[in-house]
Structure to design on (224 residues):
């Protein structure tokens, strides 16, 4: 199993541009989580899907952020328009029924200049 | 909702000494408590976990203890080695199947 796959690994973009981060969960997992990690705030849960349905998006910082999970094997996190304060490492994680096999992806390091 | 607090934020120990990191949680219904190790530039990785029906669990040099009454759990690393240097995160799983993470402890093992 290749684990949770995220792309791209690094993204540098200019302020105002749209950014799309991608995640492929582990096959068979039915829960998917998007996190943002910064030095100041640590690991923050942005949104949580269960069986492709968003369960809790209260962590999404503002309307510029949106996430989708069109099927069990793919999710996207989109930021439009991006701002320098969005610079962070974004992790995707997946599991089965909440906590079984909970695994993080390698993360996407986003830099907005 | 759940609130997890983690202390200390930084910890330096001499190689061979023990390291202890402590976390408290607020939701008494939380029932699963994993610990993650994150090396610089890498993903958090599960190193040990404990469920609420157990008071202690050990895996070689790493152990976790859980006090449900006091709502705190701790990570213990014995005979520390330089490769133990990393950021360690505790987490609690609430009844809604969501993880709440502590703010991390940066552990430095001095050779």
């Amino acid at each position: 199993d290749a684990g949770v796959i995220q792309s791209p690994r690094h993204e540098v973009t200019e302020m105002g541009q749209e950014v799309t981060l991608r995640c492929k969960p582990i096959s068979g997992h039915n829960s998917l989580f998007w996190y943002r990690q910064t030095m100041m705030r640590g690991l923050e849960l942005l949104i949580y899907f269960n069986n492709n349905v968003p369960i809790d998006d209260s962590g999404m910082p503002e309307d510029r952020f949106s996430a989708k999970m069109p099927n069990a094997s793919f999710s996207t996190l989109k930021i439009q328009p991006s701002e320098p304060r969005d610079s962070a490492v974004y992790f995707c994680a997946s599991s089965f029924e909440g906590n079984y096999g909970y695994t993080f992806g390698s993360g996407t390091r986003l830099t907005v200049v | 909702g759940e609130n997890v607090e983690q202390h200390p934020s930084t910890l330096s120990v001499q190689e061979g000494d023990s390291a202890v990191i402590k976390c408290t949680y607020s939701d008494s219904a939380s029932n699963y408590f994993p610990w993650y190790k994150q090396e610089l530039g890498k993903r958090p990785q599960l190193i040990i976990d404990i469920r609420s029906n157990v008071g202690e669990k050990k895996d070689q040099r790493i152990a976790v203890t859980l006090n449900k009454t006091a709502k705190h759990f701790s990570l213990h690393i014995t005979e520390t080695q330089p490769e133990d240097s990393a950021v360690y995160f505790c987490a609690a799983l609430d009844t809604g199947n969501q993880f709440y993470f502590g703010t991390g402890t940066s552990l430095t093992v001095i050779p």
